[in-house]
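ok here's the first one, seq then struct tokens
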Amino acid sequence: MAGIYEFLRAWGHQKLESMRGCPIKNYVMLMSRLSGWQTQVSSVRTEVISKGGLLLLSCHEVRGEMESQLESIRKDILEQVQSECRSRSQQLIAELTDFVKAFQSINSDIHAIAWCSQKLNEANQRHAELEEQMGYTRSLSELVHNHFGLLNAENEALDISLLDAWESFQFEKSQASEFLLSKRHAIVPKLQQLMVAVLAELEDLIDTALSSPFMDPAQEQRSTERQLISLERQFQSTASYLGELHHAYTTFTGTGMGPSAETRAGTEGPPQVALSKSRESHTFILVFYLFIYLGRHPQRMEVPRLGVKSELQLPAYTTATAMPGP
């Protein structure tokens, strides 16, 4: 009884909270201990006569309090397990459904294929993780059923939905994989063409930023700044699309673009290298021109770049200062 009493004194909300995400066997061991203790406490007599028959001790209140505490702990564990099982099931169903929608949206359109190939690659990379989450969530559900004897309609419906989502995920992933493999020979050349076109578009954006209107001091500063920021956003969007295409390409081939595509694009190295170079050139160009204009019109102002506003304080250029060329 002393050991049970010490456990009850040490138990609290923090102890229970620390069990979230713990191995299922920890819950099972604790539930087994609680069940054994409840049986042990209930067998204690309500009255005990001391040795020698001098005192009559009443154990009714102590026994009742310990029984109540043990039952309260069981209820708290049940609530936590049910809550964790419900939240994990809902999150996993949402993730699996997202994958299924991507797999089902696949068609002959190259953009849909690129998107689907990315999701398929992500699903393959995360398959072991998703499978582990599925097993843990199902174990929580079995824990509620086996150790608490509870299986209400809501929990049962959620459990069935999770199983259906997992089966759909497995089936649709297999179907999408087969479709992409069957279309591989037609898809790869198309992806190469698209990447070359997008790289050319990025180079055009850089050429635009280097064009003479942006070097004309007569141009209105705010207008020029807005145009540069617009170019940057357009560049970021295009670069992001190139990244998606390249990811799809590597998913199909396991390599970067071939030399022929690189030559047509006028770049050296694989697309990610060209993309990195373009990003560096683009960032330099925008900062360069903004500094020129801020230097010609010295003042404190906020320049929004990459979603962050940074305050710049720059000295004025003198008329004798040679303005750097592009």
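and now the second one, same deal
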Amino acid sequence: IAVAPLSTLGAEDTSAAAKKLEGELARDLAAVSGANVVAGADVADEIKKAKKPILRACDGNASCLTELGKLMGASHVVFGEVGGLGNVQVVYLVLVDVQTGKEVRRTQVQLGAAAEGGIKGGAVRLVDPDRYTGRLVVTTPVKDAVIYVDGRRVGKSPAPPTALPVGPHALRVTHPEHRDFVRFVEVGFDQDTPVAVELTPYGAIETELGATDGGKPRSNVTYVEGKPRWYREWWAIAGFSAAALTGAIIIGVATADGVAFDASGTVKPPQ
């Protein structure tokens, strides 16, 4: 992989900051891809030796970058342009396949955005986007709570870290004896995102009051199943059923001989 010299506003950037970025980009591309990477400074020297100064200002053009790749004997070329506004600096990156002469992928890196992973995160998105992930670590004292991410079940507590694409995700933790825990979480690149989940039980809270400590509740709180409502007791359900059955029998007997009527007549259809 050959890294073209970085440019700013369409011209080659020869500043010390640009050279530092070129070196960092080359190191991260090598680490991510496992390929041999030629840094921008070495590429610039080869362009000078070949006396092809036009290749120093490809400005993202795929045909120009293809010629540069052939000069370097590379299978791919990465071009970068530095831009931004005020204190926010952005590096725009393009990956070109030298054999096909076509752009493979492009991305941008906001310098200083730790969650995005900086230059390394940009290198991963450029050459291996499936590896642009982070880890969600969910912990809860409740055992066997089911963990869902974006509507997909990922495990039960205690659960190992879950690899997820970088960015926002919807987390839901549920347990039959507790209220659901729902929250949006932001997963950063190549880092653990811990979420401590406190599940609230459905059961009634029974607090024992001390008789000799001034009426203050003791610190120990026990969760117990609450007594069901009276209309859910077996005797209430049986009574309701018997009343409904009796009412149905009375109505059936009253209408057994037919429905009574006061008069009858024939209604002719309209002319």
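notes on #2: The domain at 133-196 is CATH 2.60.40.1120 (Immunoglobulin-like). The two ends are 94 Å apart (CA to CA).
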